Amino acid sequence: MMxxxxxxxxxxxxxxxxxxxxxxxxGPSSIPPPIIAGSDQSTPSPHTVVGPVLEDAVSLQKGGGSxxxxxxxxxxxxxxxxxxxxxxxxxxxxxQAHFSGPIHRFNDFTMEVxxxxxxxxxxxxxxxxxxxEARPRLVWTTTVRSNFKxxxxxxxxxAEKVCQSADPTLWRERTPTWMRRDxxxxxxxxxxxxx
Length: 195
Known about the structure:
Layout: H1 9-12, H2 16-26, H3 57-61, H4 65-70, E1 73-78, E2 81-83, H5 85-97, H6 111-122, E3 125-127, H7 134-163, H8 181-194
Parallel strand pairs: 1-3
Antiparallel strand pairs: 1-2
Helix pairs in contact: 5-7
């Protein structure tokens, strides 16, 4: 089974790898392992490596090596889309978590927030086809713009349906759960002025 094809996206990637990484970076423990009673085993010195060493901590910190790559979700470009669909859902959840004001166009996000969104995506995903960074970044930007547009469209349509009115000023009380109330009210005012 391919990593990117798993269902249950939010629970599929464990923090097990990060815990191992932190243990490697922290170095040997100051508490020696227990000695089994009645055995001839002695406690290894804190500088003795017990068990196989997969990678050195330096390469893991730099983000290299097969261990680092295996903890990321694999994604690929299919035409002008990022596959699998869970990657697009991750992008939408990231937008929701970093919604920084009454923004009704993706270009209104500051460049710092756009860069943060991209870095969050890349810190959890890797493209299966190693190419220059321009193509994946372009496809990611297209995907995030589309997802943002659909996110706001769905919020508007849900408010319109619940309020049974096409008047955005009547939607103010129907704030989406992921958005601050003052941002939603400002967006409703912007949409009302555009009509």
